[in-house]
Design a protein that fits this description.
Helix 6 packs antiparallel against helix 7. It is built from 8 helices and 7 strands; from the N terminus they run ααααβαααββββββα. The protein has a domain of about 110 residues: Ribosomal protein L22/L17 (Ribosomal Protein L22, Chain A). It is α+β, with helices and mostly antiparallel strands. A 3-stranded antiparallel β-sheet has the order 1-7-4. The radius of gyration is 29 Å and the shape is extended. A hairpin with a 5-residue loop joins strand 2 and strand 3. About 40% of the residues lie in helices and about 20% in strands. It starts with 7 loop residues before the first helix and ends in a 20-residue tail after the last helix.
């Protein structure tokens, strides 16, 4: 009886044929085309209308360029690589390379290699750091989030906005022989480095948003006049 009944996997499984997959993924192609055309028209209309309000995240994604790069697993630990990640965070790519060039850490050379790879990908894939063809905009003095003042001479110059490390799998486990005939197992960890590259125009936008927020907030009132609330005809104590 069990031989005549089909297996549960065959009954519940799906066909790998292209036509069957198309019916499951795209059941109504004409409706999908109409919806895509409607969304494209809406996006173009909102983008060209001077009175339309574009969402903030869409405006940032349209006007600013970002690249995220992750290195392969490096033969080091999180405790060692995290200090280098904190050292290069917030610096320009060139300044971070100079810091790693004169660092005594073993993984500093590998960090330079990963920064070069991320920089090349940003230039080739995102068009970042190419400068201006005709004339550069005037230099602008801005204040960063940490309170330090910074002069922006080239808005397309790249900097490391974020840098963090990820714990990877163990590379090996070797014996560690100790005194009195004891032995421990020593693990060899692996860690990866992830960086997010952005342009200086992002710093300019963040500075302008902070200044606009300060002006919109207004001066601080020490003792504001507030209405009396929770009035009762008898004492509350």
């Amino acid at each position: 009886m069990s031989l005549s009944m089909p297996s549960r996997r065959l009954v519940r499984g799906s066909s790998k044929v292209k036509e069957a997959l198309a019916r499951a993924i795209d059941p109504d192609p004409q409706a999908r085309v109409r919806w895509e055309r409607k969304m494209a028209i809406r996006q173009v209309t909102n983008g060209t209308d001077a009175y339309s309000v574009e969402p903030r995240h869409l405006r940032i994604a349209r006007t600013e360029r970002v690249l995220k790069s992750k290195s392969p697993w490096l033969p080091t630990s999180v405790k060692k690589l995290v200090h280098l990640a904190r050292q290069i965070q917030g610096k320009n790519v060139e300044d971070a390379m100079v810091q790693m060039k004169y660092s005594k850490k073993k993984m500093a050379a590998e960090v330079i290699t990963q920064l070069n790879i991320a920089k090349d990908l940003a230039v080739a894939e995102r068009g970042m750091g190419l400068g201006f063809k005709d004339q550069k905009p005037p230099a602008m003095e801005i204040q960063r989030k940490d309170g330090k003042w910074f002069t922006v001479t080239d808005p397309t110059k790249m900097y490391i906005a974020e840098a963090w490390v990820n714990k990877g799998p163990l590379r090996a486990r070797s014996p560690d022989y100790r005194a009195r005939g004891r032995m421990f197992l020593k693990d060899s960890p692996s860690t990866s480095l992830s960086v997010v590259l952005k342009e200086h125009k992002t710093l300019v936008r963040e500075h302008q948003e902070r200044e606009h927020r300060k002006k919109k907030q207004g001066p601080w009132v020490h003792l504001p006049d507030r209405p009396i609330t929770a009035q009762r005809a008898h004492y509350s104590w």
